[in-house]
Write a structure and sequence with these properties.
By secondary structure, the chain is an alpha/beta fold. About 35% of the residues lie in helices and about 15% in strands. It has one domain: TIM Barrel (Alpha-Beta Barrel), CATH 3.20.20. The protein has helices at about 40-55, 70-80, 90, 95-110, and strands at about 10, 15-20, 20, 25, 35, 60, 80-85. The strands form three sheets. It has a three-stranded parallel sheet with strand order 1-6-7, covered by helices on one side. Strands 2-5 form a two-stranded antiparallel ribbon. A hairpin with a 4-residue loop joins strand 3 (about 20) and strand 4. Helix 1 (about 40-55) runs parallel beside helix 2 and helix 2 packs across helix 4 (about 95-110). It is globular, with a radius of gyration of 17 Å. The structure holds flavin mononucleotide (FMN).
């Protein structure tokens, strides 16, 4: 991707899942499979960000199960230069602001002036 000219890489999207209606003996979803998002995919998303950020020289945008500042900070420490909040916004429309304010609070508490110093810090 980076070799093809990408300025940044965003990951991950949803993961495919399936559920079965045991009474009907059929898949529960009309489309048979569906996209799994939210907290269930966070460890996989973190792993992907960790691996990809180690392999490319363009910024990585982390996404997948981020609902809090600590979730976001995990992605940043794994190598993300920015993060996205998707599913969490459905149950908490303020989630992106909560994440932002929580990061600011963490930085103030820890005496960190520049978040760039946290990017990928858990990889070294
Ligand atoms: C309702 C819904 C719609 C989505 N639509 C798109 C889309 O149109 N294009 C896309 O690339 N990803 C789409 N996604 C995936 C999200 O951008 C995101 O990668 C994924 O949901 C994981 O993040 P999350 O756990 O914060 O939701 C969608 C996700 C959800 C839940």
């Amino acid at each position: 991707m980076a070799e093809a000219g990408a300025d940044a890489i965003s990951l991950i999207n949803t993961m495919k899942g399936i559920a079965i209606d045991i009474a009907a003996r059929k898949p529960l979803l009309g489309n048979i499979t569906g996209g799994l998002s939210g907290p269930a995919i966070k460890p996989v998303a973190l792993y992907m960000v960790y691996e990809v950020a180690s392999a490319v020289n363009v910024p990585v945008i982390g996404c997948g199960g981020i609902a809090s500042a600590s979730d976001a900070l995990e992605f940043i420490m794994a190598g993300a230069s920015a993060i996205q909040v998707g599913t969490a916004s459905f149950t908490n429309p303020r989630a992106p602001l909560d994440v932002l304010e929580g990061i600011e609070q963490f930085m103030a508490t820890e005496g960190i002036d520049d978040i760039a110093g946290l990017i990928g810090i858990a990889r070294s």
